[in-house]
Amino acid sequence: MEPEGEENRMLKTFLVEDEVVVRETIKRMIPWEQYGFELAGEASDGEMALPLILKSKPDLLITDIKMPFMDGLTLCKLVKKELPGIKIVILSGYDDFNYAKQAISIGVEDYLLKPITKNAFIERLEEIHNRYEHERTQKEYYEKFRLEMQEYERNASRDFFESLVRADSNLEEIYQRADRLNLDIVAEAYNILIFSPDISDSSCNSSEGYSDWEAEVHKKIENYFLSHPVAMLFRHQVFSYAILVKGQKDTIEENTRECVETIQEIMEETGKNADWFVAVGEEADRLSKIKQSYHTAARTYSFRYLYDGHILYYDMLEEGNAGSAEAAVSRTEALQLKNVNVNALNPEILQKFLSSGLEEEVDSFVHDYFLAIGQEPMGSLVFRNYVVLNVRFSVLTFLKKMGYDDSELSREETDDIIEKTGESMEASIGYCEKLLKKSIVIRDENAGNQNRNLLKQAVDFIDKNYMDEEISLNKVAHVANVSANHFSALFSQNMGQTFIEYLTALRMSKAKELLRCTSMRSSEVAGEVGYKDAHYFSYLFKKTQGMTPSEYRKTRGEV
Predict the structure, then answer these.
(1) pLDDT tens for residues 187-213?
(2) For residue 528, what are the CA distances in angstroms to 53, 514, 533?
(3) 39 forms bridges with which residues in the sheet?
(4) Judging by DSSP bridges, how do beta strands 277-280 and 240-247 pair with one another?
(5) CA distance 319 to 187
(6) Burial class, 470, CB count within 10 angstroms (exposed 0-12 / middle 13-18 / buried 19+)
(7) What does the alpha-carbon distance between residue 288 and residue 120 come to, in Å, rounded to a whole number?
(8) Which terminus, N or C, of the chain has the lesser number of Cβ atoms within 10 Å?
(9) pTM confidence score
């Protein structure tokens, strides 16, 4: 796969020569553009040249070695200090040949002896251009490989986060896994944030189209946290992130607030009215308590359907037994009714929860939903029956939109429902919980079928086109008609590996087959499996297989 970037770009060149005749001769005798060079400036001595070079930042400096005011060697040292990647060619006479050779030690690319012939000059320029292109290509390939390795690590770190917040996680094993992933998790205090860029995203809508806005948001969020000193970003669900915040006991609150404020700035900068949400958990004073912090963040996150805002802290919910009605009332009151959507009978609330809520969030949602409507009106049997029937109607409407016809649910008589739920508040709550859980199970099964079809389409495309050097996550997502971020998350979650892991493993498998069964050269094998650059293929093969292609062929006793 050839690296993305410019092909044979023009190299900006700066010429420094104190003899006007020599300088003009050099400028005229070389067809610069024909050989990939562009004259970006000139000067008669190093003193005049230095500020111009630092301003124009050329790729190549051609300079005489002996000049008044500032000689070429001094100029080279100063330029190399400021522009370490610049290539330098020194022009020297026979009498200062040894002086010119000293310049090589400070990073000068080459030197030419005067008088300079046109052919010799062109030959040297071609060598420099070829060398520059090779170095640029290698740099881009290594950067590409670094990003691919970052994808591997991101997938592994997601698994690490899941083990970190599991109740049965072993502390010693957690530290060992973190060390293998180069994750620094040692701190005095921690907190967990759960963030969703747009909670209106539906987990059953896997056919969402390309979204430049979505890509921009995810890129900004991921770039911000990529090298953050005290916060680590993990994939939480398909549409949400979890952020582990570290700090000292006296800084954890400030660190948490800084992360929340940055997310808010990024979301507001996009200029789109997204229904984003950040849930902030309760601080933990040791690593073994992170699972409790995660639990409080998840509990806060489940309140997103009833909270009229984008940011919610767990400490805004009053501490207590999350399952008790009394504690739930206290938490609802603590949030203040102006911050809660008291118009809970708005069908959009139920539809939103049915679209993207999780089965494990149902119990909390139903309790909070009933309490947001109001304890007093829900005490009325007639009104409570109305609410229960409204929930049932919302579920039936949602299932019908998905094309699902549950005849058993549809045939249920209103009188039977009222009789079952009219006994108590608990009976009403229990009925609604059962109803919502059933609809979410159906939704997830339907989404699973859609996702399986989507992934089969994507995998078939990859299997048929893996040898195409231009194949990419974006291209495959486009074929599957979903956003790149959505596809990436779905692929990893369902396939147990990232897109790039799957593609690389497939290519390496095909490469090993060709190495075993044919006498093709390594460079030919590289081209056959989608890598135009044989050096990058060998580099990647050794990284993933533990040996070079030629070593692999020898160990198999092949030609």
Answers:
(1) 999 999 999 887 554 444 434 444 567
(2) 44, 9, 11
(3) 13
(4) unpaired
(5) 25
(6) exposed
(7) 70
(8) C
(9) 0.56
